[in-house]
């Protein structure tokens, strides 16, 4: 019997990744750009390999920034009360190059502090909340939570104007504990009722926040084991002080960037890091992106891509010229309508994205966009093949670099490409087949 062999321990903490040999490769760089943003432009991942992964992450954390004229240009279009221009504008930011990581965080918070124009009914308020997530989503989560709680969009969505002394409305207090800060199992129904009393008085005046003191219940409340004459701000601070809060927020960040089911030890390590950083989200994301857990091959292509991410990824990688309005519409057809999440829980995600009602849209949207791309543009994005077999390889390795167990898919692509009438047709056929493959649905 030979000497016992040992495998490396699982990456259950935030130890820095130390790539060996060629581990910092095209697959790793693409993974970074897809999880830390919305995927690479043609040649972008390859260029990152000229430096190390730290330089690549620095680039995500210190972006060029959006064109200020584009950021402010939406304002003039909001007066008509139509949500479509706002969704198109945001999709333009998502597929653009100004701040991919920032837009990833903005989308994450839109899903976390979910509000929908279906009830709010005011694109100006939806835009204001979107701007809040963009401007403060990388900072102190506690400050973000306070700002989101007082945002008129949230107050209208969760009936803040109806919460008055003697007639508490529990909607906001319930979602703060269940979804925003603590998570199920870390509070009681009594805590919700008492916190609702504390939040009474917060409301709106037109499109602005106002505190209506005469509607505030100033009596003693007992929330999460503490009795006090809580003000709205004080009770939110007290909820944020609970140990479960840091774990809940850390789990949310890990689910976005690492895995939808993070190991409890990884959650605990991330929660500890978050508190040490003064609840700074950018600092936590920085550590997560540099960690062994993030680059662990087991966490790559580990979840089904949401419609916005799926569309943005193909659009960027192939330099598709579809208008952002069409991209936003296609995402809605797949089940993710920007500014219209289905409930207070946001989008369920995961396998829910794939169903009989959305699969046709997930299949057709990339093919429709590919049909509008001419042969020279496709070759510029993926390379110009010198054989039909090479066309299959360019499509597969360009769109899914480092795909594990790719033999069956590669063989299928080569069979189909071999019967193409030209090399350009071979590349187009292979690209189309990759875009609609089950592997491409994962990120």
Keywords:
443 residues, mainly alpha, two-stranded antiparallel ribbon, two-stranded antiparallel sheet, 55% helix, disordered N terminus
The N- and C-terminal alpha carbons lie at a distance of 41 Å
Structural class by secondary-structure content? mainly alpha
* Poorly predicted ranges: 1-10
Helix content: 40-55%
Indicate the overall shape: globular
Strand adjacency order, main sheet: 1-2
- Radius of gyration, taken over Cα atoms and rounded to an integer in Å: 24 Å
Order of helices and strands: HHHHHHHHHHHHEEEEHHHHHHHHHHHH
What is the helix tally?
Answer: 24
How many strands appear in the DSSP assignment? 4
Strand content: under 5%
- What is the makeup of the main sheet? 2 strands, antiparallel
Would you tell me the overall average pLDDT? 95
Explain this structure.
The protein has 443 residues and is mainly α. The protein contains 24 helices and four strands. The protein has helices spanning 26-35, 44-48, 53-61, 68-73, 83-95, 100-112, 117-120, 123-136, 141-150, 152-157, 171-181, 189-199, 232-240, 243-257, 264-276, 281-289, 292-295, 307-318, 324-333, 359-371, 375-382, 388-399, 407-418, 423-435, and strands at 202-205, 208-211, 221-223, 226-228. β1 and β2 (208-211) form a beta hairpin. α8 (123-136) packs antiparallel against α9 (141-150), α18 (307-318) packs parallel to α20 (359-371) and α22 runs parallel beside α24. The model is unreliable at 1-10 (pLDDT under 50).
């Amino acid at each position: 019997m030979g000497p016992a062999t040992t495998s490396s321990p699982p990456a259950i903490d935030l130890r820095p990744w130390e790539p060996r040999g060629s581990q910092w490769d095209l697959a790793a760089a693409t993974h970074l750009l897809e999880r830390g943003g919305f995927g690479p432009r043609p040649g972008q991942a390859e260029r990152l390999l000229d430096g190390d992964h730290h330089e690549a992450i620095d680039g995500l954390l210190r972006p060029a920034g959006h064109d200020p004229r584009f950021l402010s240009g939406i304002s003039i279009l909001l007066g008509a009360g139509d949500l479509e221009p706002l969704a198109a504008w945001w999709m333009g930011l998502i597929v653009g190059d100004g701040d991919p990581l920032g837009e990833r965080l903005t989308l994450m918070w839109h899903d976390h502090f979910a509000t929908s124009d279906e009830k709010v009914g005011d694109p100006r308020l939806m835009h204001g909340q979107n701007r809040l997530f963009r401007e403060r989503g990388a900072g102190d989560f506690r400050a973000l939570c306070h700002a989101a709680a007082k945002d008129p969009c949230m107050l209208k969505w969760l009936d803040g104007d109806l919460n008055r002394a003697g007639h508490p409305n529990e909607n906001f207090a319930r979602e703060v504990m269940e979804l925003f800060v603590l998570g199920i199992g870390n509070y009681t129904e009594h805590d919700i009722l008492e916190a609702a009393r504390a939040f009474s008085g917060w409301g709106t005046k037109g499109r602005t926040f106002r505190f209506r003191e005469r509607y505030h219940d100033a009596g003693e409340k007992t929330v999460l084991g503490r009795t006090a004459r809580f003000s709205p701000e004080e009770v939110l601070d007290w909820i944020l002080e609970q140990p479960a809060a840091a774990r809940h927020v850390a789990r949310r960040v890990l689910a976005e960037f690492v895995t939808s089911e993070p190991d409890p030890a990884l959650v605990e390590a991330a929660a500890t890091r978050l508190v040490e950083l003064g609840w700074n989200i950018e600092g936590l994301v920085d550590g997560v992106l540099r960690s062994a857990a993030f680059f662990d091959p087991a966490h790559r292509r580990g979840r089904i891509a949401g419609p916005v991410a799926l569309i943005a990824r193909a659009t960027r990688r192939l330099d598709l010229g579809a208008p952002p309005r069409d991209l936003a519409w296609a995402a809605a057809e797949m089940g993710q309508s920007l500014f219209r999440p289905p409930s207070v829980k946001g989008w369920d995600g995961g396998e829910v994205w794939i169903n009989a009602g959305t699969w046709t849209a997930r299949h057709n949207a990339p093919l429709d966009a590919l049909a509008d791309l001419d042969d020279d543009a496709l070759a510029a994005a993926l390379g110009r093949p010198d054989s039909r077999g090479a066309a299959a390889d360019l499509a597969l390795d360009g769109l899914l670099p480092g795909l594990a167990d790719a033999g069956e898919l590669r063989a299928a692509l080569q069979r189909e490409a071999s019967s193409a009438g030209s090399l350009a047709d071979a590349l187009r056929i292979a690209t189309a087949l990759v875009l609609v493959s089950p592997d491409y649905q994962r990120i």
